[in-house]
Amino acid sequence: MTTALLPTTNRTLADLLAAEQRTSRLPSVVAGLVRDGELVWTGAAGTTGVDAGPGAETQYRVGSITKTFVAAAVLRLVEDGLVALEDPVRAHLTELDAAGVGRVTVGQLLGQAGGVQAETDGPWWERTAGGGWETLLPLLGASALRHRPGTRFHYSNVGFGVLGELVGRVRGEDWRTVVQAQFLDPLGMARTTMRPQQPAARGLAVHPWADVVLAEPEHDGGAMAPAGQIWSTVADLARWATVVAGTSEVLRRSTVEGMWEPQSVDDARDGAWTSGYGLGLQVWNTAGRRHAGHSGSMPGFVAMLRVDVATGDGVVALTNSTTGFGDLPARLLATMTDAEPHRPTPWVPHDVPADALELVGPWYWGPAPLLVRATPDGLTLAGMQGRGRGSRFVRAGDGLWRGLDDYYAGELLRPVRTPEGVLSHLDLASFRLTRTPYDPAADVPGGVDARGWTPLS
Hints:
It holds the Pfam family Beta-lactamase. The protein is α+β, with helices and mostly antiparallel strands. It has ten helices and 20 strands.
């Protein structure tokens, strides 16, 4: 059970929110923090422009957070074997030009690596009512490709319009209906809708040099709706944060872990990536910690959903201002993490099968010492002197172990035995790991110098 945050933490968070509302001149701002799958703190400041004050159940337009729902629907198609990430989208939308967007793969579109143009050629789609698929289709020829698919990060709202149509076409019903049935209803997200339902904040622009506001338009984006249509609340997005954290049953854990993996990185500014894009999720590299989620903006609104993938802690923040709130969400999440870090889980013994127990302990990759440990899920391999390639491993059948991450992700570890059945060495992606450095009895490729270890001469 989650313990409520301390009064001092609550006060600090409320002060941060109030200060941001004033400094950034936000008509209203609401935020919430998630821990262990529960909404443990909410705060609000300002006015929504309607009678009700802002709160955790007030709707705001969440913009591109919509993309995370569309991506989840695509990945459910992958889970069900109806679509593959390697499929060109033309395999499912046959009317697409094979020389244009039709040749981009589903995975490239999800990862913002398809090279597809960012916006439509027509009127500013975020401020004008959209037409159906027939209005978007003529824009998807060869001229829509701004970059060679798969070569670089290029954020595309148009690409998610295509993905929304793909979901609807394969499922045989509108993508909105699919998202409702697969995610919103099972998660109890009753306040997440395609158009605003009261109480809902009014979208506003704040004049840059005067304390006055201007109402922004609200509309149905039509074929572009998958890029930014949804309205939601802090309370509902806290439920969606459990999906992004990989702790919900509506998507397999392995599917969500794939969403976290960067498909493209945004290194245009300084050459060192701090943000990128997974499969339908933004990913951030923050001081060595991996965060995943999505920002969102539409005229009159800015939103953020962000989760620390190591702990599951998350933040949701919503405002009804076109210009938004800067790094407030990250600061709120860091404040909770710093003030109230997770308590370590108690150590308890667990069963270790005999074939795994046989593999634990020191091994050597040439002269480099490595350590294999048993975990409840499998094995880990790590360097013993701060160097060396490592990975987690799980069973792959027939006595094999498959790497999950780092250098050996997807590679096989195979215990090798003598004719008498004695463990001789480990074969890891053709490398020999031996119980002593360059064990001459372990069939080390290239052989071992018969003189053995000697002083330099």
